[in-house]
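Pair request: fold both.
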Amino acid sequence: MATQAAKIQTYIWTGKDRAGKVAKGELHVTNQAIAKAQLRKQGIAIKSVKRKPKPLFSPRKKPIKPADIAIFARQLATMMKAGVPLVQAFDIVIDGLDNPSMKELVLTIKNEVASGTGLAPSLEKHPQYFDDLFCSLVAAGEQSGALETMLDRVATYKEKTEALKSKIKKAMSYPIAVVAVSIIVTGILLIKVVPQFAATFSSFGADLPAFTLFVLGLSDFAIANWYIILALVIAGSVGFKEARVRSKRFSDNVDALSLRLPVVGDILNQAVVARFSRTLSTTFAAGVPLVEALDSVAGAAGNAVYAKAINNIRDEVTAGLQLNQAIRNTNLFPSMLLQMVAIGEESGALDEMLDKVASYYEEAVDNSVDGLTSLLEPLIMSVLGVLIGGLMIAMYLPIFQLGAVV
């Protein structure tokens, strides 16, 4: 198991340079001894070195997102391909980072590498940011002497994966946005607008239409219990999120259900196939043995149903079955993938075939998300029109009846 890396600290120093002039500055290192050693190398006559105090109300740290890791991988790959030494490449990357948390992470890795630790072991100390696949590909590059090539493959893989995740989030967030907007607009009308009409109707002295009475009843209920409704919505959202984290059975059931949803389910299936193909292509091209590659693919599947199926594929391949037949036995993957894998196994170009499959399904996901967006735009207008129009009709029905009587 990887040991926890020492935390980077900021130290303020003062002293005199080689010319005898007063100098001062800051260093970002793990401890005071390293800070003093670096200053001595620079020819500084040290007067004081002390840890920079933290502000009383320090701002919340900006989190490190997977997109930040993808950008880091691409920048490092570009520097390495240009012939820049690894430690110097880290310095260039650090200078271009805006996220302080990411800058601290890269600086920690740079110090580990500068002290003689390999890049892959340095990355393995931060598993929350660099997964097993990332680290294994970098390790393969270091062992083969082709680190810049492996970093380029890792960068491409991370970029493709993050682009795919972005499309899936877009597909999932749009229907949620429709429901949220509808609920908010309806709530505002019931709590703020309908009571104004109710005060007017109280002076009519006539029976109100059933539809109007129903809406007035909803308004009274919303006004009396809005805080309970809001608490239930918040509790439901938090409870769902916690249940997914804490209960594997619940999470697996949600994953299975999501694949059967209309429209969105097709997009999720295509996305998992694209991710499966892209991950297996990347690892296989890097020379990772197929069984080990399937372990990485299962971890990157993003869906419990497919992760279980991929583990079954790994077990059957380990037992001697061909990959295309093991995939076929799951009854989950599309025929196009099966045929391309079979061709790849026969021709010895499995990584190329899988790359083509990944590109095809990534484009299919992109087109499906665009189609879903186009479908939901008029649906939003229709839903809001029915809700707002229905409420307005319910409020104006008594006025219309009164006009007819007059």
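--- second member of the pair ---
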Amino acid sequence: MTTIQHWINGAPVQGTATATQPVFNPATGAEQAQVVLGGAADVDAAVQAASAAFETWSESSLTQRTQVMFAFRQLLLEHEEELGRIISAEHGKTVDDARGEITRGREVVEFACGLGDILKGSFSDQVSRGVDVHNFRQPLGVVAGITPFNFPAMVPLWMHPMAIATGNTFILKPSERDPSAANFVADLYKKAGLPDGVFNVVHGGKDAVDAILTHPGIEAVSFVGSTPIAKYVHEQATAHGKRVQALGGAKNHAVVLPDADLEFAANHITAGAYGSAGERCMAVSVAVAVGDAADGLVQVLERKAREVKVGPGDQPGTEMGPLVTKAAQERVESAVGVAATQGATVVVDGRGLKLDDPAYAEGFFTGPSLLDHVTTEMAAYKEELFGPVLAILRVETLDEAINVINANPYGNGTALFTASGEAARRFQRNIKVGMIGINVPVPVPMSYYSFGGWKDSLIGDSPIHGPEGIRFYTRPKVVTTRWPQPKQQVSAGFNFPTSN
């Protein structure tokens, strides 16, 4: 049985951990590895290594950092298939889907490759007689990321390339459910020429998280996960004097107007709802059908849901793999049953799905479920199910749809399907959501824009990656300079200084 160890100071280490946790293959239900569960001592060892590395890495030239980022980007490209299969084997998503998340993560590396431009300061000449002002940004020190199971490559890649490129050193605490991608990426960094100790991985659960949130040697923490944990991370880390990025949960709505192409809308909503078995913070979990669009939309969504090919993530032709754990499978299937008892119409029931191949009889599979006549009072609407369940909510007008979305406590992503530019403009200006798609179901921004929602989807005020990442992982200095001529007498006043 393989044991997945920490990665500290450029090498795998067992650390002080005596406890381990099984890592499963979701397609077969079989245990395939054990991961060590670190605690405060392991986090401290990583902090010590990262602190020592910071002394030299923070003083490295922009050229050196750029060369490492370019090399790392190339290695991610060359090893995309291998890393994709590692993700698929532990998460359950299809290999193609895993390769997609690697690509989106690599875009952040490509943004970081331009750090020579994005770290440029500014200069103001002669702000006062003989006085100039310029500014620049410097790294914080040791920073950490706590990341979820659903994107074991992409979400960490939204964090550490920005942190490392700006001169920080990094400690990653990945999900213990699918931990191998983190160690694989650590090895790629080493091959790219990143000095030992700049990137470290500590595996574990709550003990490791709490150690990161309270360690005095860690300057900032980035987190992506559920809203309750995001609030906990934000409260604990800020109480210990750290900067915090804390992204929480979501309930993403896709609104379909009567003028939309229903085939187009349903095709994209189906992919957005059931891709990665719905285990995405940007998954479409609610389709809001407006007016006359409702009946026709439900018919097309039903047909497309029944056409989704469910199977092992590493098999060609599979469109949707299993859920990540047995507990997740049971929770999602229970939610479908609860929805039925609360009055929803189960148009497509994905519960109890069994594949023909007996090798996957114990896998954590469930099929796509489609629920019609869902109301805002039902659990299927209120809760973030994080599974392949699409709820259909019927309203009469676009304004009613906007009001429903704005009343929801989450504000991560939303989409509108329409042929009307006026409706699109009204929607995007009035909706209280951070990321919006117009005829785009999963509006994840490019790396040169920032990712983050509103309301309970973002705790605090700091989104992730892009320009916000640069600001988060650095602090500014402003220098005011005068160079008087030798023996020149310059009067000094006791009043507060002003320009002249």
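Observation on the second member. The first helix runs from residue 40 to 57.
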